[in-house]
Design a protein that fits this description.
Largest sheet: 3 strands, antiparallel
Number of strands: 3
Strand content: 5-15%
Strand order of the largest sheet: 1-2-3
Order of helices and strands: HHHHHHHHEEEHH
Distance between the termini: 38 Å
Shape: elongated
Radius of gyration: 23 Å
Helix content: 40-55%
Structural class: mainly alpha
Mean pLDDT: 92
């Protein structure tokens, strides 16, 4: 039972990221025929050089990929090899100076982008209208797509349900119980989706969507692409 509880320590997305980082390190150690644990200073320096010169990672990504190594050691009751490794620290300073720390920001979604998306959709279709509602909810709520689209299996305690959308005189209020910064049900996030003029009105889109999907399970997913098919993150990205 303890192992089952430990597996729930991280969100599924975080766990998937850490698995990717762990696989990268394990594969590298296999390529150069060295044991991954305990990691020697030479192995760590070779790995950083590999990430920088072969994989062409940015400095912030290299730091993230290194973070899994202390975790692997601690799980095996081994001391963290990184804090006391001056040679590694010295190497990272050189990598940082060569690569810099600038990051490429994601393009901001503007009303012009939304209008272009809207022109390609058939809002008499449940799937298209659900996608359009997801776009507007994310835009007005400053949310990630994963806040309204489902990743993995639908979990009522985590994902947005139909009952979480409440009609108001001025539009709709959406209650989110789980986000990237709300992991342990410590609070709720309320998103205002008002009536506004024009085709970018989230309340109008939601009203039309709720009419098309009337009769759907109140405790089921808010956004559906069909009779009982939830709008997933994969579908949203496509």
């Amino acid at each position: 039972q303890a192992s089952d509880l430990k597996r729930k320590a991280w969100a599924s997305s975080t766990a998937a990221t850490y698995r990717t980082h762990m696989k990268s390190y394990m594969d590298f150690c296999d390529q150069i025929s060295v044991p991954p644990l305990p990691a020697t200073s030479e192995t760590l320096q070779l790995y950083v050089t590999y990430l920088a010169k072969v994989k062409c990672f940015k400095f912030c990504s290299i730091q993230q990929y290194l973070n899994i190594i202390p975790h692997m050691h601690k799980l095996c009751d081994l001391p963290d090899p990184i804090p006391q490794d001056y040679q590694l620290k010295y190497l990272l300073m050189g990598v940082k100076r060569e690569l810099g720390t600038a990051q490429s920001p994601v393009d901001t979604v503007t009303p012009s982008h939304l209008l272009r998306i809207r022109s390609l959709l058939d809002c008499s279709s449940i799937a298209d209208l659900a996608f359009w509602c997801a776009c507007l909810i994310a835009f007005y709520g400053l949310l990630r797509p994963g806040n309204v689209a489902i990743t993995g299996r639908f979990e009522p305690s985590k994902h947005v349900r139909r009952i979480d959308l409440m009609p108001c005189s001025w539009g709709y209020l959406l209650c989110l119980r789980h986000t990237k910064t709300i992991q342990f049900r410590e609070r709720e996030l309320h998103v205002i989706l008002p009536h506004v003029n024009g085709v970018l009105c989230p309340a109008t889109a939601l009203q039309a969507y709720l009419h098309l999907t009337r009769g759907a399970d109140l405790l089921g997913p808010l956004l559906l692409t069909g009779t009982a098919s939830p709008l997933t993150y994969t579908i949203f990205r496509q």
